[in-house]
What does this fold into?
Amino acid sequence: MSLAERLVQERQARRAAERALAQKQSELAEAHRQLGHRAQALSEEIVETRAEVATVRDENQRVKSDLSAAHHKIAVAERRLWHSVQTITDGFAFFDAAGTLCLANKAYLSIFDGLVDIAPGVAYPTILQVMTDEGIVDTGGLTAGEWQDMMIDRWRMDIPPPVTIRLWNDQYVRLVDRRNAAGDMVSVGQNITHSVLTEAGLTEARAAAETASRAKSAFLANMSHEIRTPMNGVVGMADLLAETGLDEDQRLYVDTIRKSGDALLTIIGDVLDYSKIEADRLDLHPEPFDLERCIHDVMMLLEPLAREKGLTLLVDYDLFMPSRFVGDPGRVRQVLTNLMGNAVKFTDAGHVLVRVTGAPQAGGPSQITITVEDTGIGIPADQLDRIFGEFNQVQAARSRRFGGTGLGLAISHRLIGLMGGEMWVTSGEGSGSCFGLRITLPRTEDARPPRPMLPNGLRRVLVVDDVPTNLTILERQLTQLGLEVSCCANGPSALEAMDAQDFDLVLTDHHMPGMDGLALTQAIRARGSGVPIVMISSNPGHAGRDPARAHLHALLQKPVPRRDLIAMLEGMDQTPRAVPAPNAASVRTGTRQMRVLAAEDNKTNQLVLQKMLAPMNIVLKIAQNGEEAVAAYDSFHPDLIFMDISMPRMDGKDAARAIRAREATLGRRVPILALTANSPDAGDPELAQAGLDAALSKPLRKEVLMNRIAALCPHDAASPLPDAASRA
Ligand code: ADP
It folds into this structure.
């Protein structure tokens, strides 16, 4: 090969090498560029990662410090909790689900007195065993085994009932155990020694108080009886003394004795009843009784005071309502006496109205509603809800004026409650009061009272009364009986009414302003009218000496029991009276004197009876005891017997039994009224069983005695009332 060719070849080779070099250089530059990019990205990534690491490190640091703070807090809380658990005086222990003691405070462990066996890790049954083995617990009547079994059985219950254990040193611990959801048991032991001892002391004190209360009740009952007997002498003699010629001072003294005696008797009765109710010792004695008569009896008692105050006493007993029920008459009377007595006491003018309504249910018991309404001083609204509480008197100053114990309503309320009834009051200051009660009592009559049979000629009745309520009651009662009724508020208008129309009967009130009932009677007769006239008087005795009384067909005591009113109407013969006809209208025709036997051993009380009955037109015989009474029954043939109950030799009940036994063969029955020194409302079912018809409570009141005698006077005897005697 030539040189040239070689040169060409070299040139070509060099050029190729230069091209390849250029190629490699450009590739290298590209690689450099890319490497630069990469390095850039990497360094950016490193910066980012570094920042993240710093953040995580910070976070870590914070968590670490939080954790240590939490640890610290937990440690503090745990320390405090344990400190508290150790400090409390109650025993505290914690058992796991298997019954192993996990922890217990000092108080819990203290009863084991340092026994090393009792420490965390010990099983519950072992604790029980240690307690019996070491005599720590007093197992009472149980053996150690029985006691442990009892405690284990209890421990296994889901909710173990609290149990009180007694320790050797007479300390009492009440164990309360509670299981949580995981089965662990928290056990708390409270030392209740103080309350146990207090309770025992209280039980002892209560037993002692009950014994004392029983003794007190017996003492009070006895005292009441003992006080009533001499009080009969005091009050009775004061009553008699008041009727003798006294100067003003002497009258004042006597009145004070009487009023104080009455007040004392009321207080004795109230205190005795209240103590009985408090000691749950008050029993009811149900027996058949006449409610209407009971109300009228109370009215009779209140009549003198009402008259003194110028009050009108009214009874509105639903005409077709039965009057005989089964209940405790003494207690019913007591409640009525309280309500009606208060009504009279707290009323200075106007009236006191007792209204009896009810719904007799076929064959069943009757629901009876009794309201006692007055027109008195009333009770302020804010006192009403307390009125049935004990010792409650509306305003001390006011009560001081009226007296009283403040127990009456509380006793009445409790009595009505005992009877299964309810009591209420509506009142306003100055606008009168209305006390109401509702009781349900069985009836003794099967049907309503039979419809009265009035004489055919009796149709038109003229009623004269100045008290509108009284007019309304009489008008309603007479209208219900099918009569035509005209009402007049005074005598002159009655005379005018009689000019305009004929009447078959005139029913007039006694005391009326202007022309009273007797003056009206005179005026009617003076006009030549023979119409039957019946006068209703709150004080029939006062009408006695007036010549006009002879013109009366009948003289009724106010308020008139329905039975008396109906009996009077039924018994009316319609022949007009002769004009004028003095004495022709006399109710009684008998001439012999009524015979009254009184059995009473106490000399003072004999004297009281003799003096009280001296003005009456009767023959009175006194028997010193039951035996003498029975003998006198045979020889004296009494029309009425008053029988003291506690007498030597033969008491009143035995005497009554003996008399009733004699009567069984003779076929007659003399009324026997018991004279008792018990509280009027004590109720004694034995009296009725012994054959006594009713009881009068000492101290005896002249008016009551006289009224009873008059009411029980047989038809063939002359009127026993004093005025009748003076006329005869
Ligand atoms: P007291 O023996 O004081 O009359 P009560 O329990 O019977 O006791 O009555 C309590 C009080 O209720 C009376 O003191 C009186 O203030 C008031 N009170 C009772 N009834 C009436 C009434 N009809 N009118 C006004 N106040 C009455």
The longest strand covers residues 351-360. The CA atoms of residues 372 and 671 lie 31 Å apart. Confidence is low (pLDDT under 50) at residues 574-587, 724-728.
